[in-house]
Each structure stands twice: as structure tokens, then as C-alpha cells.
Amino acid sequence: MVVGWRPAPTGWITVNSDGSLLRSSGSTVVGGALGDGQGRLLGAYAMNLGRCTITRVEIWGELKRLEIAWDAGYR
């Protein structure tokens, strides 16, 4: 498998994110980065969410991505 980065088309942004749940403690984290078609970083985030469900981790990730994109002027 070949893995590589492709820039977003003009006017679009890319979003890379991941969440994690440590089963032994129930601790969760989420993080991600947003970039433009030129490879510039628009924003990034990492959050320790404590004990919660993986569904909540995914929701927090979506909200944070939308917030960063909105703050960068993307609608």
C-alpha cells in the first residue's frame, strides 16, 4: 500500500484526525490538524477528554474541526 498526502483542491481544506480510548482506564483523547491546498497548517488541536465514550470522542473531534475551519474563514 502506498500512503501519501495530496493537497486539497483550491478553496477546500484537508482534515486529519484521530481519537483514542484506553480501555484499562477509560481515558480518551482526540486530536487533529487542518491544512489548505498549499500544505499550510490552518490549525491543530489535541484534547484529553478524560473518561467518556468513543462516540463522545468522535463528536468532540467533529466540533473542534468545524470550529477551526470556521475560525479560518471556511464556510
From TrEMBL:
Cited Gene3D superfamilies: Ribonuclease H-like superfamily/Ribonuclease H
InterPro entries: RNase_H-like, RNase_H-like_dom_plant, RNaseH_domain, RNaseH_sf
Annotated protein name in UniProt: RNase H type-1 domain-containing protein
Residues of the RNase H type-1 domain: 16-75
Top-level lineage group: Eukaryota
One example GO MF annotation: RNA-DNA hybrid ribonuclease activity
Species this protein is from: Linum trigynum
Pfam family membership, one: RVT_3
